[in-house]
Design goal:
The protein is mainly alpha-helical. Helices cover about 50% and strands about 5% of the residues. It has 2 domains: about 210 residues, no CATH class; about 90 residues. The chain binds 2-acetamido-2-deoxy-beta-D-glucopyranose.
């Protein structure tokens, strides 16, 4: 008898497993289970709008199948609408939000932009009037802190910039100068678009940059392999995008409407993530560089036309995409010639150095710079520089006319309209 039982034990186990499988999937069990959330009070926690619909519209109370539950309402997409047209004499209010360290000098702001309202946070000084809860995550912590602290009383436009005035990542058409960028920024465009990257040039960052699915480490994008995990922590209800792109370097401007398109609690959530993530200060800050455009436009790729950004955004209008590309091409020719000239000079210097240090044999082997080539190159560079400057000057002139800006941006424009 005992022996028989042992032999049938595995069979018995399989039979009971199959039985419970069917029992679990039978409607009666599911409906009992489905009743639970109501019983524990989840029904009250959700507002009517968010409540997943489990009841039939015919009112008979038969629950819908799980597949029909309206998950879309659990993660409503923010409404990112265009700002309305303001009268041409409307004066936008604006603020410049800048993170700095104790050591960084931001006097250029007061000197260059005396009328600009500012919020300057000192990242590493908890006794400063404006400071973040923790010195972590670089500018991200401070941008988010400003939004959280001012959410209910925002000026029309907030400009988020770094503490340094000159930087390679400030566009060189605007002299790499943050003061010039802020002075020339069209608050109208920021208001209309809601979100504007302060860098127009695509490189680095566009047309595609971060690939959150990529797990191989990339020296230049150390944060890439950590992005997918961070994304699912930050936006648990949004699919990890295959690509994230916008012009680099985390300087941008926002309208008050755009900030308020997301609830205050979103920003608190993002900042909590930053406060608690085990990622390094550097990496957690860098991850956000290609996340801002998603937060403020809902799009994973944000790469506006470069010429439109310069023209409508900063009043530098080359007349259209072709004319802008021509300018870029002439400027590139000038840079190439400058490179050739440097090479020519370096060759001469190498020979001189070798001779000075008594390495005569080596000096004889070295490439001799072509005689007279330097003069020729200098002349070519001069001609190209004149051309570049002429085109640039004309673009600044053209940008003073609001009709030109509208045309280049493909906007309707009527006599009397402002920018
Ligand atoms: C905007 O500012 C300018 C210059 O300060 C002023 O002349 C103008 O009246 C202001 N516009 C409005 C609508 O207040």
């Amino acid at each position: 008898m005992m022996a028989l039982q042992k032999r049938f034990l595995p069979l018995l186990a399989i039979a009971s497993a199959v039985f419970f499988f069917f029992l679990y999937h039978s409607t009666s069990v599911r409906e009992t289970w489905r009743g639970l959330p109501q019983a524990v009070g989840m029904g009250e926690a959700l507002s009517d709008q968010q409540k997943p619909t489990t009841e039939n519209p015919d009112g008979e109370g038969t629950p819908k199948s799980e597949e029909e539950t309206n998950y879309a309402n659990w993660n409503p997409r923010p409404v990112f609408k265009e700002g309305d047209q303001k009268p041409s004499d409307y004066n936008f209010t604006s603020i410049l939000v800048v993170p700095r360290t104790k050591e960084e000098d931001v006097n250029w702001i007061k000197e260059e932009l005396p009328d600009q309202q500012t919020a300057i946070y000192v990242a590493d000084d908890p006794s400063a009037p404006l400071h973040p809860p923790k010195n972590k995550g670089h500018e991200v912590m401070i941008y988010l802190s400003w939004i959280i602290e001012n959410y209910d009383d925002l000026p029309d436009v907030a400009i988020f910039m770094h503490a340094h005035r000159w930087s390679w990542h400030n566009d060189d058409i605007l002299d790499n100068d943050a003061a010039m960028m802020i002075r020339r920024l069209s608050l109208n465009r920021v208001w209309r678009d809601g979100y504007m990257n302060m860098r127009c040039s695509w490189d680095p960052g566009c047309p595609d940059w971060m690939h959150p699915g990529e797990v191989e480490e990339d020296m230049f994008k150390q944060e890439q392999s950590l992005l997918a995990k961070s994304w699912s922590e930050l936006f648990p209800l949004d699919e990890v995008p295959s690509v994230l792109a916008q012009p680099c370097c985390a300087q941008f401007a926002l309208s008050s409407e755009r900030i308020q398109a997301r609830p205050l609690s979103s920003y608190v959530w993002y900042r909590d993530w930053l406060l608690h993530t085990p990622l390094s200060d550097y990496i957690s800050g860098r991850i956000w560089e290609y996340v801002w455009q998603f937060v403020f436009t809902g799009n994973n790729i944000f790469c506006p036309k470069v010429h439109t950004c310069f023209c409508d955004g900063f009043g530098v209008c080359f007349g259209g995409e072709d004319q802008f590309n021509e300018f870029i091409s002439v400027r590139q020719q000038m840079r190439d010639k400058e490179g050739e000239l440097r090479e020519w000079e370096d060759k001469g210097k190498a020979i001189e150095e070798a001779k000075e240090e008594g390495r005569f044999e080596e000096a004889q082997q070295l490439d001799v710079p072509e005689p007279g080539k330097d003069k020729e190159l200098k002349e070519q560079i001069e001609t190209l520089r004149d051309d570049v400057n002429k085109r640039k000057g004309a673009a600044f002139e053209r940008g003073m006319n609001p009709a030109n800006r509208a045309m280049e941006a493909g906007r309707q424009w009527h006599e009397g309209d402002g920018y």
